[in-house]
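Cross-posting from the chemistry board since nobody answered there.

I work mostly on the small-molecule side, so proteins are not my area. We synthesized flavin-adenine dinucleotide and want a rough idea of how it might sit in this target. Sequence and SMILES are below. Is it possible to get a predicted 3D structure of the two together?
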Amino acid sequence: MATTATKFATSTSIAQGAIVVGSGLAGLSAASQLISHGVPVHLLDRAQKPGGNSIKASSGINGAPTRFQTVPDTTFYDDTVRSAGSVFSIAREQRQKLVSTLTEQSASAIYWLHDEKGVDLSKVAQLGGHSVPRTHRPEKSTVGASIVMTLLKQLKESPLFQLETAARVTRVLKSGEKVTGVEYTQDGETKELHGPLVFATGGFAGDANGLLAKYRPDLAGYPSTSDPREGTQDLLTAVGAQLLDMEQVQVHPTGFVDPKEPQSLAKILAAEVLRGEGGVLLMEGKRFVNEMETRAHITDAITKHEPLKGDIKQWDVLIVLDEGTFKAAETHLGFYMWKGLMRKTTVAELGEGVLPALQEYADAAAGHTEDRFGRKAFGHWALKKVEPETLVYVGNVTPVVHFTMGGVVINERSEVLDAEGKAIPGLWAAGEVTGGVHGENRLGGSSLLECVVFGRIAGDQASAAFKSQ
Ligand SMILES: Cc1cc2nc3c(=O)[nH]c(=O)nc-3n(C[C@H](O)[C@H](O)[C@H](O)COP(=O)(O)OP(=O)(O)OC[C@H]3O[C@@H](n4cnc5c(N)ncnc54)[C@H](O)[C@@H]3O)c2cc1C
């Protein structure tokens, strides 16, 4: 619900609260933390509805070690660094601090959401690139929507909270060295707000002809799972912010090709959990990759092949689930089946070659053979004997632009840093608008986590700044 600002003056420089821009998980985490310190929050979002891309998240949020995990977990930091790849050596010390903060505060992020906020995160799965299961999600609902709706509901109950939607920030205001607020447009009017500023405006995966085309022209024409909207890093570089890793863009290997609109640029994600719980990927009827590998690895294995003909750049890949996998990922599957993105069919219908490929996989899953692609974890795949009439669940998938690793540089206090590495006073950032935590490749589940960890830190810091004015 959009509200009109009453507690905040638009033409005075006297701060009456903190400003948070962006109502995704990073912004909501920062706002929750500010309110917990008794600081009024004015939350601006350009969209009509709050929630950003966060509301779509479906695989889960990482945390380790937590009481929900059944396997001891000491490798989260190492897995993150391994996944970040060779760019980790650039600004290594700074990245190490960010990754340490992320991983060390991950369990408390899960407990904050689960125990304090009441979001069930008791189900744990292992996603690609992780050594052990550590990605938490609710038993009965999707993770992004559950977290966003819960935080938003609790924020709206506070008299200290004001939300303005359809409010697009166009400029960050600065006085001398210090950031003092924002300029934004709403209903054709230009307005100003003043106060400590937390920027949580998300990434630029949906900015196909803007920042994406500028930093990764090779990805022009790729469909995306993110909302189509312009990136905001330029608003922050205009006040001196430093950028890092802008060319590091994550292409998710599996976005659904909707049979009703195969040429649409906007795709729905085929969640990681489908592969994690046992799903198999096939091209031309054959397996071609370890489905538990990192996203970058799987994407490379797909894009080595010729793309399909058509206006957009996509490939012909099939994802196949047995009954056991289907049941384990049922919260997602109901939606995908309802949307017509997956269908139930027989193995015979999938064409020649599929039966032996699935049988070989089933044998490896049952422990009779080693998987020739090196897959070790098979989720809940239960099918042992594959027959032509065996029922399976299938969908067509293709790589999609999914996440932008690059963004403004922050330190472990979520302060935005300038070109010399100095904190810009009055300005904090969290979530996908920032760069440096994930390097070349974000681990599935670590984006929601960075939103909570650095969003909460930003809220604490902005609160302290507000109180010390
Ligand atoms: C389909 C999908 C599934 C995903 N699944 C997972 C998952 O399971 N686990 C995981 O960890 N990550 C997942 N991710 C990634 C993760 O959801 C996002 O990276 C993360 O939620 C980003 O949160 P954020 O708060 O930084 O930005 P967002 O949630 O995108 O919010 C940013 C907000 O800022 C607003 N905004 C932007 N510009 C302006 C402006 N100029 N003025 C005012 N407002 C502005 C936007 O309207 C938006 O509401 C998924 C992403 C997608 C697209």
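Reply from a structural biologist on the board:
Welcome over. Reading the output above for you: Residues 446-467 form the longest helix (22 residues). The two ends are 31 Å apart (CA to CA). Happy to explain the token format if needed.
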